[in-house]
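I'm stuck. Protein, please.
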Amino acid sequence: MKKIISYYLLPMIAILFGLSLVISSYVSGPPAGNTNAPGENTCFASPACHGGTPNTGTGFGEMTIMGGIPAGNFYFPDSSYDMMPYIVDTTKLKGGFQAVSRLTSGLNAGTITITEPTNTQLISGGGFDYAEQTATGAVQPVMSNMHDWMFNWKAPSAGAGTVTFYVAFVAANGNNAPSGDNIYTDTLVLYEGTVGINELNATPDFTIEKVYPLPAKDVVNIDFNSNKNLELYISVLDVKGRTVISAKQIQINSTNTTHQINIAELTGGIYFINVHQNGKPVIQQKIIKFNR
């Protein structure tokens, strides 16, 4: 009898153990091809992955550009953008994503570069490059209900045409099983613009040395560094690029370097400090606001 039980039970244990390893391993990033792009799955459709019909959870996932999506959803050839996929779900502990950029022809669009290797990684498969979370990045909520990641995307050269980002998100409960998770998908369509890179990326006469505290509750301090007398304007944008704190004029020089922004009236979440010089945005800095 013991031999019969062992004959059937041991293979089942091995299968369940292997399944557990597959599920657990996706914490460090899913295999290529799970962005919901044409011909791809999401983590819901992949075998032994996550349960939950996409976009039926209580939260949402979205791909945006640090500092806001350019007006008209235009990108500019050979320009670089800091892409920020993020997920908001008050019911889950862990988060993950996978993103790909494609041309209308279906080919890879532009170049993805990882700028935060602790939380984000680059993988390739099927002729495409994908950005996705690492194991550390799956458990780094910036707030109790929010995960965000960052990577750089260099737009393709002139003539490439429309680019679409496809991204799938997982808000997971961390039980190492397919049940109880939420899946979200998003697309971001960018149209080719005509402004040259030199017109966009003017070199400012200052740098931002430090922004603190992060996360912040009521006030954010900004330490500038410049050896010139400069007149700057500072505004605050939300993740959709909408102005939530109107532009404020400040003066900086070699001795007057620290300025404050009152964010007490903002709701908790991710925002961007936008610094303008000579009428043009030259520096953008992400900040995180605690819930009041």
Summary: The chain has two helices and 18 strands. Residues 11-197 form a domain with the Immunoglobulin-like fold (CATH 2.60.40.4060).
